Amino acid sequence: MNLKHQTLGEFIIENQDAFSYSSGELSKLLNGIGLATKIVNHEVNKAGLVDLIGEVGEINVQGEAQQKLDLMANHTFIETLSKREIVCGIASEEEDSFISINSFDMQNKNKYVLLIDPLDGSSNIDVNVSVGTIFSIYRRVTPIGSPVTIEDFLQKGRNQVAAGYIIYGSST
To answer: At what angle do helices 8-16 and 25-45 cross, to 10 degrees?
Structure first.
């Protein structure tokens, strides 16, 4: 049996030509998510050694106790994707409201929003249960160049452009 191993980057490059209308923006976003997951995986793998396990004493919008790993993963995704200016907004389980990402020229020309649970299952990590990142990508519905609004995030599932789950362990 000959299994083909392929990285996320290789998969994106190999398949983006199948879409003649592709601008590369979704590919950049998926690559940005891939980079953030590598950073989160690195931190999750060493969490017990550097005191990243446990609660921080805060409650998230879902009413769950926030874990140190939740905050680390949330910060990693927001920083990684914001600095690359590849989304116009992020809605995270760890935030009270969505985050509007302004591009450096202050006119957000990006067309995608990201909805994310940066680290699903983090409260169980101390008992060696798998954890992961859940994400969903939508095209914004507000005009490009205008600020994102809640309507950009509250869309029907059939409008979803891409979604995924990354499971963290010894082989992410």
So the answer is: 170
Containing 154, the helix (H) or strand (E) segment is none
Which pair of structure tokens corresponds to residue 32? 């940005």
pLDDT at 170: 54
In whole angstroms, give the CA distance from residue 123 to residue 139.
Answer: 31
Q: Using CA atoms, how far apart are residues 107 and 149, in angstroms rounded to an integer?
A: 14
Q: Which pLDDT belongs to residue 160? A: 95
CB under 8 A, 24+ apart: contacts of 18-23 = none
To the nearest 10°, the Cα dihedral for 107, 83, 169, 10? 80
**pTM for this one?**
0.81
Tokens in use for 88? 């116009």
The encoded tokens of residue 114 equal 């990201």
